[in-house]
Design goal:
Helix 3 crosses helix 4 and helix 5 packs parallel to helix 6 (about 160-165). By secondary structure, this protein is an alpha/beta fold. It is globular and about 40 Å long. The relative contact order is 0.16. The chain has six helices and nine strands, in the order αββααβαββββαβαβ. Bound molecules: adenosine monophosphate. Adenosine monophosphate binds near residues 21 and 128.
Length: about 180
């Protein structure tokens, strides 16, 4: 399936979950076997950063793309989870994103100082979520070498926000679909 056909399966829901938000619903795409497989294959091809150790997926839709991509690229998968979901010693970061506020956590033991991590999420909106995870990786001494998203909403200037809050460079931020 082509990128155009995949893009057509993303539904834009106006005013969800609140007034003014154009919510990108990936459910129709995920339930279509061919579209989901093509999306993962295309994402895998777009990841030119080969030198990384593990993928970190963001709760919850980042897990869908992140775990499939980790399987495909034969990398380990780490969960960045919302508050109260992970056991053990945690690193945590509060942040505001496009339509709400949240706290994300990582298990400290999962991050090895000096190791290289690639973040993945479904949507890049304001960039606060990805910046929060990049900061968590840095707190534990890990190196964030890139961020991959399925959809980028360029009008929210998330890329610029990530560049100002992390050590990532423009080319380290990879989006399969822009302006879905
Ligand atoms: P942000 O931190 O503003 O870049 O927001 C990104 C996070 O919020 C991702 O984990 C997305 O799942 C979710 N998100 C933000 N805006 C949207 C949107 N318009 N449609 C779907 N998900 C969104």
């Amino acid at each position: 399936m082509t990128l155009k056909q995949i893009t057509q399966l993303i539904e834009t829901i106006p005013d969800f979950p609140q007034q003014g938000i154009q919510f990108k619903d990936i459910s129709p795409l995920l339930s279509n076997a061919e579209a989901f497989a093509s999306a993962i294959n295309l994402l895998a091809r777009r990841v030119k950063i080969k030198d990384f150790d593990e993928i970190i997926g963001i709760d919850a839709r980042g897990f869908i793309f992140g775990s499939a991509l980790a399987y495909k690229l034969k990398k380990g998968f780490i969960m960045a989870r919302k508050e109260d979901k992970l056991p053990g010693e945690l690193l945590s970061q509060s942040y505001s994103y496009e339509y709400s506020q949240a706290k994300l956590t990582l298990q400290k033991k999962r991050i090895t100082p000096g190791k290289k991590y690639l973040i993945i999420d479904d949507v890049l909106a304001t960039g606060s979520t990805i910046s929060a995870v990049a900061q968590l990786i840095g707190q534990a001494g890990g190196v964030c070498v890139g961020a991959v998203v399925f959809i980028e909403l360029p009008f929210l200037k998330g890329r610029k926000n990530i560049l100002s809050q992390t050590k990532l460079q423009r080319e380290d931020i990879i989006a399969l679909i822009r302006n879905a």
